[in-house]
Amino acid sequence: MKLVRRDIDRNGEGSVVLVPEEPEDMWHAYNMVQVGDYLESTTIRKVTLESSTGSVSANKVRTTLNIEVETVDFDSQACVLRVKGRNASENQYVKMGAYHTLDLELNRKFTLGKHLWDSVVLERLDYACDPTQHADLAAVIMQEGLAHICLVTSCMTLVRAKLETHIPRKRRGSCEQHTKGLHRFYDQILQAILRHVNFDVVKCVLIASPGFVKDQFAEYLFAQAIKQDYKILTENKSKFILVHSSSGFKHSLKEILADPVVTSKLADTKAAGEVRALDDFYQMLQNDPDRAFYGFKQIEKAANLNAIEVLLVSDELFRSNDVQKRQRYVRLVDSVKENGGEVKIFSSLHVSGEQLGQLTGVAAILRFPMSDDTSDED
Question: DSSP string spanning 329-361?
Fold first, then answer.
């Protein structure tokens, strides 16, 4: 995300001008645009014009609108952000108060104004505009006849291709059709890797499957790379890691990222850090349940006693249309940070974030044990 201008006063009111440059930037924008904000961008509007002779014509015109946000909709697969609201500024084509939907697009700047830029949104803004954050992990999760090619960024898991192919069974005395079917399937995956994986950015490509499917595919992949002279694959062979998964479905990504071999390779990625933190929470819940809390009321009481060591919170909670509810979570995050605790904000588009969402979206590992009786006393 490119930051063109930042004008926020000491009270937290103001605006920023941003240019989304890649699909993940639209996810960051979705997490920053909230109901009640003001959004300004260029758009196409159909207008009806009446000439002096009385004839009426309908034309599409490009104009700049400033709307007060009422609804925000994000398509995670297409990475498109649609924001609906009422026109808040004078415009020759659109009346004040008239509804309009702005489509935020890549490489088109927009201005976002808020009455209050809270600490969570400001952190998101700084993070989005940090040029060092990219999609640094790719994963091919496969089983015989099914494969998912995923890009794992710091904030979301993007399924770039889903491949399903019927592979004929082996017949007694003849495996020819089975082998041909497998090679067709492997070639589809190879082409998808070439199309979707940017090796200039990606640090690691995981190939995961049950059994020996991953080994057979890797053998085919590098044999074809030499045969077809795919230099980009041979030059980046060291980036490929073969790991076990229970299936070829997307949800297997969580167990893959928890693998110690993978974790050591991805020590600096946010995705692996989230999975590690969630695993630590589940282990604490099993071994020392008085130091593992989830649910807002319990965690708020623990925060008041300065008991939180690590706070896990889903970014979905900061997109609530209820301003008071949103501010309660912002205050909780600020409180934990002020008291020396660590805060991990999980992306709801990651498998780990989806799992945290099933635990009310907020959980914590405590510095010391607290029973329900202890937490109720405060």
Answer: HHHHHHHHHHTT-EEEEE-TBSHHHHHHHTTTT
